[in-house]
Structures are given as C-alpha cells and as structure tokens.
C-alpha cells in the first residue's frame, strides 16, 4: 500500500464515520478506531489520537448545522457540560489508578441496559409533570421537525439525575479518550425526556468540548499523527456536514432504532473486551 | 400551562427567543469557520506534501515509517510555526489539526461573551465554569 492509498482509504472510512456519528450523536470513534487498528494496522495509541480528532470534527461540523436549525438545546448542553468536563477531569485523575477491565464491564452493562430501556419505551411521553429546576434554568424548548412538518415543543425534566449521568459519561471520556455520546444520548432521551433528534443533536454539540478537554494533551504528547489524523479530520468533517443535512428528513423512530442497534453492538464489544482480555 | 398570556409576557418571550437566536447564530458561525479553516489548511498541507514527495503516490516503501515515527512531525507550537515558515506540508497539517482542536474551546469562550452581552448572569456563570474546567483539564493532563 502506498502512503497515498493509505490516506485515501482512511479518508473514505472517515466520511462514513462522520455521517453516522453526526446522525446518532456519537463521535465516530466506534468506526475510526477499529478501521485503523484492525484493517490498516495502526498502533492503538495513534488510533485513539485520530479518534479524538474525529470526535471534535463530527461535533463541530454537525453542530454548526444543528444549532442553526434549532435542533440543539444550547442551554441544556451548557448546563450539562459542567458535569461532563468535571467528569473528564476526574477521569484524567483516575487514569492509571483503576483497572480498565472493571470499567469496561460496567460500561458495557450500563449501555446494554439503556439500549433495552430505549427499545421498550415507545413515544408515550404525555405530561412530564412539574420541573422546578428546568423552569429556573429556562431549559424547555421546541424544534421544527421536517419529517413531521410541524413544530414540536418539549419540556425538560430530571436535570439533576441528568447531571449525575453526564458526570459518569465525563469520567469515561477522561479515562478512554472518547466522546461518550453513547451514554449521553440515552441519558437525555430516557431521563430528561428530550426528543430523540434533540438528544442526538445536543449530544453532538457537547462531545466536542468533552474531547477537547483531552485533545491538547494527546496533541503535545505526539499521539495525533498528522499522516493519520489529517485524512480523518477532512473525511469526518465532510461526512458530518452531509449527515447533518439528512437528520431533518429522517423519521425519529428510525433514528431511535439505529441508535439502539449501535448501542447493543458497543455494549457487547465492551463486555467481550472486559471479560475475555 | 395556560395558553393565555399578557402582552408583557408575550413581549418578554419574544425578546427571550431573539436572544437565543443571536447566540445560536454566533456559535454556529464559529464552529463552521473553525472546521472549514482547518480543513482548508490540512488540504493545503496535503497538496504541498504530495508535490514535494511524489513517490508517496507510487511507492510502498515509506508507509511503515509514516505510520510509526512519532517524533518526525511537528507537535509543539514552536515547531509548527517553524515548519509553516519553511512551507513544510506536515507542519500545515499539524496546524490544521490544532485549529480543529481549539474550535470547541473557542465556542465556549464566545458563549461567555454572548451571555455577558445579553446580561444573562446565570448563563455567564455556567459557561465560565465550563471554560475554567476546560482550562483545568488542559493543565491537569500535563502534570
């Protein structure tokens, strides 16, 4: 394989990663890391460095569109970012002090459980009752759903449990260098009752900041190799810009089903990694 | 919730919505500019690299070294500036990646200014906390 071919394959895979990542509120690391390590035989260190770049590119590329289309709930994102960055700090502190095996198993169980919960619950939202914290923080919002052709208003609840879950997601990010979108989306969907499109768009918005918290260190350490990370950055950005155009048209149920499928896959992968290693 | 609102309440809500739209526009523009600029710089770096090393398109010899030579590329600010002056392709690629990494931090920083300008004390405080924690994580990771 020539260097040019290597870059081109990395670029092509990254377009797919950016497209799916932007639609599902993930960073694309789930696609980028295995593709680089398994098929292109890149050292895991540099694959993680490239994955962090992928998370930031997906987040910034897609969020620019989602925010403009008012799909992202900015206030929810900014409140929750306190918990994710605090978690990322704790994770950085814990790194090297706790076994990653136990964490992977725990992570796998949590994700599997939230996948099943998301599968079970249908769109029976009804009233969410009173939510004094969300009132005070002015978190309630609305967005225009193109697939339904109408404005959808929603109320936010469970901000305190949401904050706690985001703290956990932040710890995972700090420890593993990932965006943890797979934990953020279910937390917003199940606990805070945000519509799935708002959950994925808001997760997308937040993962950039979570990843940026770790990215500086990886960059200085030399883990972000331009030869590998540059085609990832360009491909993922292109994919995210394309994917974010599609989001409006897709029906919420399909998005939800796709997310649950991915969630189950990742949780299985984590469990196997944690148990077999 | 009742649907009837007093004129004062309705005006307040419109003002509130207007503030959110303004914030959304600024943030979205920052993110888009950050991504497009870094992609442009990276692509320029790739073109420079290919024009200097045409063998990268045809030869299979160099791939192994490129994938596993961590010290051969610039990854500190000084090295990047030096490389960019000498028109090194990899320095431009590194610069582009650095710009991409800084984009989310710039977005948080700008949010503080937006909320400050809108006299929104609560959210100025919230975004400042996020920015501080972000800075702390940069420092904590270094030690």
Provide structural commentary.
The complex is a heterodimer of chains A (277) and B (143). Chain A is mainly alpha-helical. Chain A has one domain. Helices cover 74% and strands 4% of the residues of chain A. Chain A is built from eleven helices and two strands. A two-stranded antiparallel sheet of chain A has the order 1-2. In chain A, β1 (141-145) and β2 (150-154) form a beta hairpin. Chain A is globular and about 55 Å long. Chain B is mainly α and 143 residues long. Chain B has a domain at 7-101. Chain B is built from six helices and no strands. In chain B, α1 (7-52) packs antiparallel against α5 (89-117), α4 packs across α5 (89-117) and α5 packs antiparallel against α6. The termini of chain B are far apart.
Q: Would you spell out the secondary-structure blueprint of this structure?
A:
The complex is a heterodimer of chains A (277) and B (143).
Chain A lengths: L2 H22 L4 H11 L4 H25 L5 H21 L5 H21 L11 H5 L4 E5 L4 E5 L4 H18 L4 H11 L4 H26 L4 H21 L5 H25 L1
Antiparallel strand pairs in A: 1-2
Helix pairs in contact in A: 1-2, 1-3, 1-10, 2-3, 3-9, 3-10, 4-7, 4-9, 5-8, 5-11, 7-8, 8-9
Chain B lengths: L6 H46 L2 H4 L4 H5 L9 H9 L3 H29 L3 H22 L1
Helix pairs in contact in B: 1-5, 4-5, 5-6
Number of strands of chain B: 0
Average pLDDT number of chain B: 83
Give the uncertain stretches of chain A in residue-range form.
none
Strand order of the largest sheet of chain A: 1-2
Q: Assign a percent range to the helix content of chain A.
A: over 70%
**What would you call the structural class of chain B?**
mainly alpha
Q: Classify the beta-strand content of chain B into a percent band.
A: under 5%
Helix content of chain B: over 70%
Largest sheet of chain B: none
Instruction: Give the topology string of chain B: H per helix, E per strand.
Output: HHHHHH
Number of helices of chain A: 11
Give the overall silhouette of chain B. elongated
